[in-house]
Known about the structure:
By secondary structure, this protein is an alpha/beta fold. It has helices spanning 12-25, 75-87, and strands at 4-8, 30-33, 37-40, 48-52, 67-71, 91-98, 104-110, 116-122. Strand 6 and strand 7 (104-110) form a beta hairpin.
Amino acid sequence: MIGYVTLGTSDLVRAAAFYDAIAAELDTPRMFETDRSVAWGAPGGAPGIGLTLPFDGQPASVGNGVMVAFAARDAAQVDRLYALALSHGGTDEGAPGPRGEGGFYAAYFRDPDGNKLNAFVMSAG
């Protein structure tokens, strides 16, 4: 149902470096780039993510209650994504670990613009 998600940024170069690191860990290439936006994903693949300078020229802002979740292969990749995020200017919103019951393992962090992100994996058990 979802093709891609776009997040606003006030510094496209800084934000693109943050998402390049996340995308590299997820083996997801850049698929689109202009002087105002960058997007990662694979044509015909899973939903992608994009960054853009706001069209209206106003500062980018963070949506309250909005979060984008990255599907990881395993808990170790969740851990790596969290560490990458923090090492590229992200901030902690919840260290990697199990959440609730049902095999949900996740980490929460914000990108340099304050957009809330999550890396997660669901175990089969």
